[in-house]
Structure prediction request, 390 residues.
Amino acid sequence: MLRRTLLATASAPLLAWQRPYDLVVKGGQLRDPGRKLNRRADIAIRDARIAAIEDDIPAAAALQSIDAKGAMVTPGLVDLHTHCYFGASGLGIDPDPVGARSGCTTWVDAGTFSYDQAGGFRRFVTEPSKVRVFGYVYLYPSNRNPDMDVVKYVRGFMKATGDTINANRDILLGVKVQIGSNMQGRYSADFLKIARELCDEHRLPLMCHISFAPPETDQVMEAMRPGDVVTHMYSRHSLGILDAAGKVKASVREARKRGVIFDVGHGLGSFNFEAAKKALDDGFLPDTISTDIYNLNLNGPVFDMPTTMTKMLHLGLSIDEVLLASTGTPARVINRVPLLGTLQPGAPADIALLRIEEGSFPLIDSQKNTVQTRRRFVCAGTICKGVRLG
Ligand SMILES: [Zn+2]
Prediction:
């Protein structure tokens, strides 16, 4: 309050301690489609929150200022499917450097760890990271006793998994399971049933990876409840959202109508241009755009959120549709931080500066199909919790 009062009355240049804001982002095009915001304005940050949005906020009113001319100023990107836990799988990546160069301020680890590693996830990933990190817990630990009945083994972890998530609701969102003959072999249907029971009993959302049948898509969709997430929606694999004629299956549409979330989850094998185009031609847009980024796809074909967003732009989504599916909607799925994924006074000061670059750029899907695109998203700056990263 003291700093504010002084600003209003002082006629001499303000001393650093008198300035009301920590940071001001000047001259950008503010774009938050969830709030129908698309205007040129300045945005001021104080104490890690957005403090003001006005036509002109003098740079002298803040300790630091960033020139955002020519850039879109959007909510920080929210990636609902990543792998950033450094576990035995070796898949995880460090979210901070990638977040700093890509505008991605909120990361959700999608099941790189099981309940017994949740403490390590909090202590060594969520707490030290500059970006926000949440996680879905995998259904079971991977170090299985080979002499033990598999279904019994997985069932044995239901209570501990549910209890762990409920005891860590600030950072843990729900349960992750990978359903597909290539992941669980003949146990897929059993594991889906266990995941469903666990989530019902502990009132948790389920994130379900789909890849190869069996089980069939209808069977998986039947098990999905409102708030659950189906990831890898645009793969070309047999456990997918399309029927043989390339149309979206009725059970998939019904699941969406019930409130099931459909997520891109690009990954090394799960994003196919042709499959995505067919689904989009049939009117089936993604709820959330995510990368499924890990160390085997970080240097291609995934790279980062702006690259995955560019692919969706190339396939015909509007800039606003891409932005909403990369900010406000995944933030609502996470549902932990009030006003996350929006630009408004009081919201967390998580901001991406994005530019649309024109030219000719190659884009590669998971099957190495390459297309050329004319516009791409480029990150020009990342602010998380009020601090510029990188
Ligand atoms: Zn994944």
Observations:
- Confidence is low (pLDDT under 50) at residues 4-10.
